Amino acid sequence: MAFKAKRNRATELISAPTTALCKRPKHHQAKRQTNPARDAWLRFESSVQDELNSLYNSPLSELAKYIDYFSEDGEIVTVCVLMGAAAAAGDREQTFQRIVHFLKRSADVEVVPLKAADHAQIDLVIHQLESIDFSRPAIIAVDDADRFPESVIRDMIYICDKVKTCEEARALAEKSIPPLTLVLGVGISDSRFHSALGIGEAAVILPAIIRMPTAIDCFRRVVNALSQSGLELSRNVFDLLCGEFIHHDRTIAMVMRSLRLLFTLHFYREPLAAVFCRVLNEREGLHAKDQQIMRRMLQTWLNKQLLMEVDKKDVPFTGLLDVPVQEANRFKCLETFGQLQKWKTRLRLLQRLVLTSYRAFNVSPRWDTSENLQHNEIMDDLQINIFRGFLVDDETLDVKVDRLIAPILGIVRKAGRPSLRQMIDIAQKEISKAPIHSFDEDIGEIHHDLSLLHDEVNKKTDVHQGQPKYPPRRASSSRYARGGGAARDRRDQLISAVRSEVHSSDSLVPIRKKLETIIMRMVNLIIPLKDIAMHETILVSNIEELQSFSGGMGGSAEPRTSLFTAMRQPSKLMEAIPPHAHPDVATAYRILAEGGRLVSLYDWYNNFASIATAASRRKDEEGNVQIVPVPPAELQARFARACSELEFLGVMKYTNRKSDHVARLVFE
Amino acid sequence: MPRGKRRHAIGNRVERKTSSAKRPRTEEARTFSTSRSASTPTVKKQRRGRSKHEPTAATSDEETVRGNETAKDEEEIGAGRSYFEAHKGIVRTSNLTLASLSIAPQDQLEVATRNLKNPLQREQEAKLDDLRRCFHQYAYILSAGHSLLFYGFGSKKQLLDDFAQYLTKSHAVIVVNAFNPTLSLRSVLAQIAKDFLNLDDFSKRTLLDYVEAIRDGIKDRLVGIVIHNIDGPPLRSVENQNTLSSLGAISGVSIAASIDHVNAPLLWDGSMYSRYEWAWIKADTFAPYQAETVYCSKPLLHGGGERRVEGAVALLKSLSERARRVFEVLAQRQLGNDDTGASKDAVLSRTTFNQLFEIAKEKFLASDPASLRIILTELHTHDLLQSKRGVDAAEQLWIPLQKPQLEAIISDICSAFK
Q1: Nearest to A559 by CA among B287, B264, B237, B159
Q2: pLDDT at residue A199 in the model
């Protein structure tokens, strides 16, 4: 009987390693559907890559120069590539890959990559070196030279020096082509590498240092790409990304992962965002599928709007209701997109104007002390700070730029003619560059006013106009002889210069006021985002969802925290559990956590049994509390199951250190 | 001798007064002890919470911020305190074992396990239904190129099985039970390559070759891999995780997996993490881990030390007559000297090698130390013997079993061979 029960249980619970549920799905032959979030992400990612490529161009072209350099004295050109702060964390592999690809692409060379993880012993290095064909120049690219043992690096340089004396290498040297070059990737400082080398090794190399861009540089480029994307982040979401960037060793890869998730979640909630991004980025016509999405979404949106307007006893869409609703939706949608696009481009225009002005007039941004920013080191960067200043506030859905505009207005109020001219030039250039300039009437008008102001500033004014004519002073020959006349002349010149400055300044007052008005007009064009219909399409502000799907940003601690919450306060995770009641496994865990690193099963069981028995109290019909006896077999089965589950969760394990004891593995 | 070491050495010899076995503990006392320890964190939290959220009117904002920082620092410092508390000093636990408990027979335990009620079943079903409603979103996230990672307390097998069914509309789906220790990743990859994509046989290739072949051969098809416990023992190696992450990075292959181990996220480094592109989904189902814990050890279900005795007897029966008798000599000495009731605790119960050799020579069991050493090695290999160098450098031998277990074994052997 017992055997039968055992067999039944085993067959019920033991699972096969794999199960193929469906080999041929219904839509198996259908073409794979494209995901709009994925498409938008790929576009954004390529724009980030373009930005990063432009950032890396300078150090890589410098690297190319060193590689082509041929030392007449026969030294090995050794380029120490300081990977920067970014490389110290998760981006190192990517940076190194970029270098290797560049080396392979830039010249007809053989690149031999070495990594500490794979080639930390000299035998492995020799094996790699033996595979080099010296019929063409070779480059040994070491990803992490600072992780190699010092002796291996020394031996490698020694071997390289011997290898280049071979016949084929000498043939290359005769043609003034460097046969061998070393590219050593090091973390932040090359000092360790230098101290590792002996005199003999240092004598055979010709060292050079190249610095790769820092993590903040890269992050700035990501921010730049973000400002050009179709989506508009709220300030809290951006702060969350910054926090993650800082807390994960300034890893760009981590930021990109979060951004990707953010794109996916937003595009799921707002399918029209995909259409908007496509219109904004590619300037393509709308596809039939996009139109379908637009119709569906607008239908819902219009209905909602109409209901709201009916409540207000004002129906603005009466005219639209006459035409077929799909067409109306499409028309309205395009119009709304136009407004959103206009708002976004105006905002970015003003942002660029502020940034360029800050740079031109050397203004440092003011801290907003009320916000208590956590990431001051990132916010020290001017571009990132200004980008953040132009983000939408989560509560008001408004962009408050007064803090950033105030220094510019201050400069304008005190500016001389050259500064005014420079300011107007900057504004004109930025407007000319903006894509909106051609069809935004307000911006066009501002551009026109700026042109007029520019002419006004450039107009040469007679500084002496209206000045009182002073009679010339009598010159005394004796005073001139003593030098007093010259001093008086100088004083007169100084006074006249000050006078002219004052008069000139007076003439600049209306220009300053006009420029100030123009700037304020530009600022006033940025209306609160909540006033634009369908702003949800482009605004990403759902911070809770992002945190939830990214496992508490970073993810590594979340399962652990979740487990502890489930054990300590299960009612928090499942409301049906009463606050003071705990599942068996939670009870067993709490007893385990009370002990030390080794816990006796005997004691553990006894404690568990007493608590489980105490918990089985029931009130009878008269309201008296009675303890319902629990059969020992049931208690033991419950305890055994709790033990198995805790072992499965990695909370404890059985140990041979003492019989019938378990070792606790988790400490809160 | 350093003080700490001395205390430790003494602690092994002296009778431990504070052990729970010797301490009179009533049921209430035990309950109180547990409830008190359980309430401690709550109290701490409340205290912290007061300093964090309820500043007095007189305190300025600056002080509040400073108070918050201090509270946060304290919380961070306190986070690992239990580790140091647990590792401070010697371990004091009772010497009583499961053999001292009146454990129900295995059949009864099996039946009781089968009949255990699940008081939260309705709530668990409701929770599962909530999660099932989000399947559309999960599928969207998968199609955007992410992998799904379900985490949280409770079995997620049912949930993932349902999601696998949902995915069959568009994907060819394979369900992998990684909690099963017999699983091999190679067989999973072979199944995908052969059955789903009709690719050639790759039996002699590496795991990454399979991945390359799948990448080349997948074309426009969609393959969904649903993995129960991607942190399970068969998939924990770096190579396997590397392979799986590379598989997840293929466009057209979607991975939905669950984790339960408390340290599961430590499996992945930055590059693996980037390839997986996890979207984390919190699924606290509170469902019992029935299928997953089949392969875990269940001490009570084995009837305490009963199974160990059975195993020892079976082993001794298969050994030579001399080995059996040497074991018997050791056991008799251990039982004869064992006055404390805890065999491991009493150093006196241990026999030195020289003493054993003298006895063995008298009883014609071993003529020279080498032959005795062979027998002892055999016993040692089967965990029936342990040895340690004593303070006089002499090798001390003992059997790592309890007194009742030893008695049971001796009586079993005697009845079988005399």
Answers
A1: B264
A2: 80
